[in-house]
Design brief:
This protein has helices at residues 17-52, 57-93. By secondary structure, it is mainly alpha-helical. It has one domain. Helix 1 (17-52) runs antiparallel to helix 2 (57-93).
């Protein structure tokens, strides 16, 4: 048996701190995209609800807040996501372990 937790298989990433950090950033990217796109969805749905009914002041506040916070969260998540993809592509091109 190894000292690795049961939920984490022993891979090349457990020996390489760069790959571990990349995996952690990847998890944050995934969460950031979920939150950002989720807030965009809230803003879109609320906009159409207000469009077909009567738009209220609180709806406008929630729509604007969702778009602003969603943009703040989503922009870095997209950029870091592309950075991770580029790093993986570079590792594969140079024959380094990816996972």
């Amino acid at each position: 048996m190894s000292d690795q937790p049961a939920s984490r298989p022993a891979t090349a990433s457990s020996a390489d701190p760069v790959l571990e950090r990349r995996a952690r950033i990847g998890q944050l990217v995934k969460a950031g995209k979920r939150v950002g796109y989720g807030l965009f969805l809230v803003a879109t749905v609320l906009f159409f609800v207000g469009l077909f009914t009567e738009i209220r002041d609180w709806m406008v506040t929630v729509i604007i807040g969702s778009l602003v916070i969603g943009s703040i969260v989503l922009a870095p998540a997209i950029v870091f996501g592309y950075g991770i993809k580029a790093a993986i592509r570079d590792d594969r091109a140079h024959g380094r372990p990816v996972a």
